[in-house]
Amino acid sequence: MELGHEISESTHKKIFTLITHLIHNPIQGVVNIHPGYTSMLFTLDKMANMDDTIQAVENSLDMVQNSEPPEANSVEVPVLYGGNYGKDIQRVVQFSGLSESEIIRRHQSGNYLVYFLGFSPGFPYIGGMDQDLTTPRLQTPRKRVPQGSVAIAGGQTGIYPFPSPGGWNLIGRTPLEIFNRSNPKNSLIQMGDRVQFKSISKDEFDQLMESNGT
Amino acid sequence: MGLEVLRAGLQSTVQDQGRFGYAHLGVSASGAADNFALRIGNMLVGNPKHFAGIEMTIIGDKYRFKSDAYIALTGSEFEAELDNKPIPFWQGWSIKKEQILDIHFTKTGARCYLCVTGGINVEDVMGAKTTHLTSGMGGVHGRILKKLDELNFGTLDDSIQPVQKLNDSITTDTKIIRVTKGIHWSWFNNNQKNKLFQHQYQVTDLSNRMGLRLIGNAINSKKESEIITVGIPLGAIQIPGDGQPIVSFVEHQTTGGYPIIANVISADLRKIGQLKPEDCFQFELIGFGAAEKLKVDQEIFLHSLHHD
Description:
The complex is a heterodimer.
Chain A: H1 9-24, E1 30-35, E2 40-44, H2 50-63, E3 74-81, H3 89-96, H4 100-108, E4 112-117, E5 124-127, E6 142-145, E7 149-153, E8 156-159, E9 164-166, E10 169-173, E11 194-199, H5 202-212
Chain B: E1 2-7, E2 13-15, H1 35-44, E3 53-57, E4 62-65, E5 69-75, E6 78-82, E7 85-86, E8 92-95, E9 100-106, E10 111-116, E11 120-121, E12 150-153, E13 176-181, H2 190-198, E14 201-203, E15 211-215, E16 230-231, E17 236-238, E18 246-248, E19 255-256, E20 260-264, H3 269-272, E21 280-285, H4 288-305
Parallel strand pairs in B: 13-21
Antiparallel strand pairs in B: 1-4, 1-12, 2-3, 3-10, 4-9, 5-8, 5-10, 6-7, 6-9, 11-12, 13-20, 14-15, 14-21, 15-18, 16-19, 17-18, 17-20
């Protein structure tokens, strides 16, 4: 289902409102909902009736037409930028023509919104990055990206909550646990949150890692 | 009631039919790679279809049973022995306490399943027992089985009459994988689309439960190779910048940024679960109506087993 044509906060708001409604008022036959920037994918039960399901989704959309999404939380994410922790920062240098320190400064000054969680458990797709930092995905995805990697793909930024394959440009790493396996609804970062990145030193990174017990 | 792992295979995990309802948190359903084989295994031991079994990959496990049990092996046939005597696949079998079940190499496809009356009983995570290896969730601490693991069997509230035996042996021909048009079909010109179907693709060793990376004809899109991130369904065939298709599988990413040229039909997803590295196959395009019918036929077949 398409709810817009380009990435915008207003399209996000529509998707966030509808998905919040559908989590509390599930539709028979819909087994999963995958929100994106401008669209939602509905996965149906094998035996679901396609036409009935589409009708039910449209009815829900009508119902939330004038509703507001839940209030946003603010989350600060500490990041150790560059070096071994952000191996692709030179690619961002190359595409942006900016120095590494300028990239780090600008990455921290974005007005960030978590548009949705996707890709892997708890992975936040974060919009609002300085568009001068736009860098295309790697041609061939990496087989394994380290946990906590902060990365750029196109004009968006994100965080890998788990080691996984991935094609985004790695610019740093956070020591925080992003996704709560035992209680995912209490994860650090949720859809609709406002995020602030904060540059930290290697010492601070190590200290935070230790206090996490990871 | 349970079993002990005396030797763990290449990648054995506890699997059920999947963990649904959490894709909006980035959690894909996971579940058995060949859920058709797991469902039949459950039928053969009298379990409901959602019960968990053990999925083995290419090389199986060796187990000691700590109690009497009733089991079935399904999926691709592996070399398998019970106390050093061959044990057949696709039928229920009584096991005595202390018997040793030893499952070696596959003789055919990638995966086989061990089902036990009462199911494999591990803690539910978000309502399911399936292991999601990428995120370390479900099953036995979110990981593959290892030597000395002990697994408990559950109990059945109501006994269901096990399906006695299958009339026909079940084989999986993985030479042809049928697909329908994907949401970015029009991003590719005819010449590029044809390339997807002209020749075989080979499964590379960078393939797992998350996805299969293929090598063969490279496909180029008319537009840039990146899209606005959208939801990715199970079985989506994505074309990254290098043009080599990636088939999303049970532990797939819930969203992605590469265009989706086609989708594997529901009825053929079980075949994807039986592909191993170096296997070759060809894609075949079919219509949505035909795909729908094949899906329904597969369900009808599964239901018919109970009444034979």
